[in-house]
Amino acid sequence: MDLFFQQAINGLVVGSIYSLVALGITLIYGIMHLPNFAHGHLYMLGAYFTFFMMTLYGFSYWPAILVSVAALVLIGMLLERIVFRPLQNAPHINSMIAAVGVMLFIEATARVLWGSDYRRLDSPYGGVINLFGITITQQRLIVIIAAIVLMVGLNLFLKRTVVGSTIEAMAQSREGAFLVGINANRVSLLTFAIASGLAAAAASLAAPINLVYPSMGAMVNLKAFVIIVLGGMGSIPGAVLGGYILGMAESMSGTYVNSEYKDLVAFILLVLIMTVKPTGLFAKEVR
After folding, report:
1. How does residue 283 score in pLDDT terms, banded at 50, 70 and 90?
2. Which stretches are transmembrane (predicted)?
3. In three state form, how does the secondary structure of the chain look?
4. Which residues lie closer than 8 Å to 275 by C-beta, 6 or more apart?
5. Quick one: pLDDT at residue 287?
6. Is the pLDDT of residue 125 over 80?
7. What is d(CA 249, CA 245) in angstroms, rounded to the nearest whole number?
């Protein structure tokens, strides 16, 4: 039983990272109906920014995360302004191709600038905590708590602020938002900024646990897309729940089945849930 609870904690850690990344993709899809294939590579950039802030410039962990988030917010806004906004009236396939192009460009640039080496970021929170017989490192506990804080904060922002309400209005009905005077370009810009910041935060939290390398965002990106399909395209609760379901499933299957096949779990879950509920767990109502 102790092993089960230990793996449950590990599943919460992985699920927290997946949920934060999937939330960013969900926000962008909900506003622009754009599957941003480059999102995982923004996640990768966030990890590199935190790594270099700490190793080259001597920043402590939390200020390095803030710098990483700020940098990715700016990069996300830049991408929205110069890449995706000019394509907003073009066929959707154009934006999808542009997203793939941005993804390839970011990874290639990272390899040129920083090489393909695997780098390890030492966590300042390397201590171990024992809770009711379950062992967890401080860094993993920080990942869980910080992810919950970010998700609750995002929910409060969307539900309790005027700016957040404009994002929700755009997601519910783009035409209706236009009719009440909401500036679609500003909302899209803000959405890209929030989504990119979430990706940077997720990567910065995960960097001390995982290795940092140019293609690290590829698998995370793929799983995040599986998550938003599982949860229902554009559904924020679905992205959160789907992330934790996948994290738990991977952790348990790696322990009780075979760790070599844990990356297949995402696609097995996708097939099973799509068979039972093709629209996803929390599909948004079509109006």
Report:
1. low
2. 12-32, 64-84, 96-114, 141-158, 189-213, 225-245, 265-283
3. CHHHHHHHHHHHHHHHHHHHHHHHHHHHHHHHCCCCCCHHHHHHHHHHHHHHHHHCCCCCHHHHHHHHHHHHHHHHHHHHHHHHHHHCCCCHHHHHHHHHHHHHHHHHHHHHHHCCCCECCCCCCCCEEEECCEEEEHHHHHHHHHHHHHHHHHHHHHHHCHHHHHHHHHHHCHHHHHHCCCCHHHHHHHHHHHHHHHHHHHHHHHCCCCCECCCHHHHHHHHHHHHHHHHCCCCHHHHHHHHHHHHHHHHHHHHHCCHHHHHHHHHHHHHHHHHHCCCCCCCCCCC
4. none
5. 43
6. yes
7. 6
| Residue entry with tokens 């999808």 | 96
| Whether 9 contacts 134, CB under 8 Å | yes
Spatial separation of the C-alpha atoms in residues 41 and 174, rounded to whole Å: 28
Chain segment 167-194, per-residue pLDDT in tens: 888 877 777 777 778 888 899 999 999 9
Classify residue 182 by burial, with Cβ atoms within 10 Å: 0-12, 13-18, 19+. middle
- Per the structure block, which two tokens stand in for 272? 């099973």
What's the pLDDT tens digit per position in 215-269? Answer: 999 999 999 988 988 887 778 888 999 999 999 998 888 777 777 777 788 888 8
At 148, the amino acid letter reads I
Q: Using an 8 Å Cβ cutoff, are 225 and 103 in contact?
A: no
- Mind listing the domains of the chain with CATH numbers? 1-276 (1.10.3470)
